[in-house]
Each structure stands twice: as structure tokens, then as C-alpha cells.
Amino acid sequence: MRDAMLMRFGASSCHIPEDPDFYGRINFVAYSAVSIGFCSCGSEATVQFPETDFVRLQIGLRGFASTYSGGITTQIHPDCSCISSPNQIATLRFGRGYEQFLLRIERPALEQQISRILGFLPKGGSLQFEPAMRGDQPHARTLRQLVMFFAAQLQEHATTLPPLLIAELEQAIIIAFLYASRHSYSDLLRADSRDGAPAHVRRAEAFIEANWQQPITIEKLTTETGVSSRTLLRAFLRHRGYTPHTFLKRTRLNGARKMLESGVPGTSVTSVAFICGFGNPGHFAKDYRLAFGELPSDTLSRAKQRQ
To answer: According to the CATH classification, is domain 2-184 in 3.30.230.10?
Structure first.
């Protein structure tokens, strides 16, 4: 693992105490703008990285870690991710049993996307990020889901994913990251976001919110909005940072959570899954846990205990 950190990932130093029970696992895939990886560490470890021309996002999956960068120490765990800004030295400290997803985005790709959204690239100052990203924020949940979806696709179809699909996933992740994080241009992006969304995006959202318990296809959305599926998808990605399908899934998950929290007698996880449009209870449980940090059965059990 030490050699991988130094040779493959560009660390300037890596210290791992002698531990007979040590284990380490690293998977990493790099594309033109976005790189994604998984890391688990069975022992404490300290890794330092020099200044780089990309942004690093650590999404904690299990255990605890911390990163010191820009004079700030950020604690990392499943409820809080950490961003290391470009051109800053970063010291990462992993606790025993820590696991994370790692996302790297090239700075030029971020600036290019900001320019596309705003129509210009603001001058004065470099692109800097607040280090802590709370996992309970809606855009942060969307980003986490996109990263995990991308990772799952790479694991299953790494050699067969079409280049166009990879490019679109990269763009979706970059947009989601820009809206999930706080950075030098956040205020400009958010001012352009919901208030500036085209009417067809707002109509699609209103239609989904009113009909989320019914089957909704992209054809229905294009009929409702009067634009092509390509136009609708691009508008959602630009102004919302996610796709119509992501918005539909999130709306259904929120509806499911309300049903489970009601604790109405006779309520079951399976019945709620089917009512809310999830045909596979196993996939529903996985999506629910990603969105809310707990299984639907946990929510239902807590609601029943309150009665």
C-alpha cells in the first residue's frame, strides 16, 4: 500500500506503523477529468500529498479519518466528507478500519464547467473550497449517489462502457460537485440555479411531484414539457446538477420516508417500496440507505416504538 500511495497516487510520504494484522485495498480508475477510487485501511496510516492541480473529495464509508489542509483539520466519517482544494498540501490520517470513496476532479474541468453554467469565468482569485461537506445536504446526497453509481458501473462494465457515457457521467459528477460544495463561486452558481431554471425544468419537477406514485417515463415528461428528452436532460444537468430520473427517485424516496415515519398499523417495508414505485425491495433498501443513512426497516421500527 505504501508503494501504491507513493508511486501511483503521487504521495510525498506515507507512514504505516508495523502491524501484523494490517491490510490495505485500493482500486482506482482515472479518466480525462474525473478519477474515482476506493480505499480501505486495516491499520492507522498517515499520508501526505504535495500541491496538485485537482480537487480531492474523500467520502467516508466506514470508520474515521481526518485531513489537514490549508490550516484546517476536517474530520471525515459517513456523515461528513472532506474537500482538499487545488494547490494545497494535504495530510491525510486514516483510522483503523477506515474505508472511503475518493473522487478527484481536474481544476481546468471545474473552471470550464463554471464558465459554461454562468456564461463567463469570474476573474480574481483562485478556485478554493470549504473543506467540510455535510452528508445530509440534498446536493451532497445526490453527489454521493452519482459517485457510487459510477463506481458500480465501472466495477461491472469497466471495459465496455461507451466513451460518450463516461463523458456524460463525468460531466454530471462535476456539476453535482459544484452545487454540493461551498467554493469561491458558489453564490454565483446558486443564484443562477433554481430562480434561473427554464420553465420546462420547473414544469417537469411539478409534474413529478404531483404524479410520483404513477409510472413516469421520459416520454411523459417530454409530452408534459414540450421539449425533447435531450433538451430536458441537459437543462436538468445545467440548472439542477442531476437528471430528471434522479429527481423522481429522490421524490419517491422522500414519500417512502414519510410513509415509514407515520408508523400506520400494517405498514411494511415491502408494501411501501411497491407503493412508491420501487419494484425491487432490495434495491429500494439500498437506495434508501444511501439517501438517509439508515435502512427503511430502521425508520419503520423507530416509528412503531414511538406509538
So the answer is: no
User: Cα(164)–Cα(172) distance, rounded to whole angstroms?
Assistant: 12
Question: Per-10-residue mean pLDDT for the chain, 307 residues long?
Answer: 78 86 85 92 91 94 94 95 95 94 94 75 78 92 90 79 85 93 84 65 90 91 90 86 87 92 89 92 89 89 84
Q: What is the pLDDT of residues 222-273, one digit of tens each?
A: 999 988 888 899 888 887 777 899 889 989 999 999 999 988 888 999 999 9
* Cβ–Cβ under 8 Å, residues 193 and 240: yes
Interhelix angle 244-262/296-306, rounded to 10 degrees, is 30
Cβ-proximal residues to 169 (8 Å cutoff; 6+ apart), any chain? 34, 146, 150, 153
Enter the pTM of the model: 0.63
* Domain topology for 199-306: Arc Repressor Mutant, subunit A (1.10.10)
Which is nearest to 213 in space by CA: 171, 258, 167?
258
Nearest to 14 by CA among 49, 51, 54: 49
**263: phi then psi, degrees, rounded to nearest 5:** 65, 25
Give the number of other Cβ atoms within 10 Å of residue 105's Cβ.
23
